Amino acid sequence: REIVFYSEGSNDWVHFEPVIKHLNQTYQCIICYLSSSPDDPGLHTNSPNIFQFLIGKGTIRTFLFRKIQAGVFVMTMPDLGTYYLKRSVHPVHYVYLFHNMVSTHMTFKPGAFDHFDTIFCVGPHHIDEIRKTEYLNGLPKKQLFKHGYGRLDSILKELKNHHHPPSNKGKPKILIAPSWGKHGLLETKGEELVEILLNAGFNVVVRPHPETTKHSPKVINSIQKRFSNHPNFVFEGTITSLKSLLQSDLMISDWSGVAMEYAFGLEKPVLFIDVPRKVNNPNYTKIDIVPIEEFIRHEIGYILP
Which residues form a coiled coil (predicted)? Predict the structure, then answer.
């Protein structure tokens, strides 16, 4: 168990796959892949160097986290050591791999990365934010690597290798892909927005964040029940597919990191509905760095108050 990857579910595989493939093909590393979801594609890869285990989300996972012996443990899940999933009692080097491109100090909870040894940073904004946080809180310096963002690389590769024309002629296809939370776009204005767009003759794809589906099922069920029979409406229940990003003409979002993937990877416009920002750290202004998801909105799209 020199290198262990832990996946919360199927959505993590899009972030792990490029890293695991590189380690496997370039260095022939033996990988131990742990997942809490039976539908995780990472559990079904066909490689002799990858050993997969389904560990669920209960007592077995909690016990395994505490007792595991490994050289390196890689995760996309923040807040290690903050709640019930703790560092191992054995010497293990913990690596955090980002599952989005947003800031570390506003979107994530305080202390979300404090118990990791190494962070694979998406860009210079992560390095600046983490170093400033360490300085202000008297934390030891972590190893920070200029890793980039594998999901963005996958989008660029898909765009280069395949031609994806819009699937419908006539009106543009609008992709609604927001973040999640009580102030999120779908939670507060979802049905109203879909209705307006469909009545205007647009083709509409709703691509909710998995956490919206998990925490606000009534919102999702209401949208599906009301619009599922409309010929110009599509509900996309997974964020692993790139189809809706590639075939749409414009994205409507709020504070979601997928807006940056859409703009940087596909060079398509984003319309931001200015709902209240998603703040999981009320003290984020002490870092005195403007979050990327705030200033970038003016550069990659338009903001609708």
Answer: none
State in words which class domain 165-304 has: alpha beta
Look at residues 144, 131, 139 and name the one whose alpha carbon lies nearest to residue 115: 139
Instruction: Enumerate the CATH 3.40.50.2000 domain ranges in the chain, comma separated.
Output: 3-157, 165-304
pLDDT tens for 195-247 read 999 999 999 999 999 999 999 999 999 999 999 999 999 999 989 889 999 99
Q: Tell the CATH topology of 3-157.
A: Rossmann fold (3.40.50)
The answer to whether the CB of 253 falls within 8 A of the CB of 177 is yes
Contact 103, 291 (CB under 8 A): yes
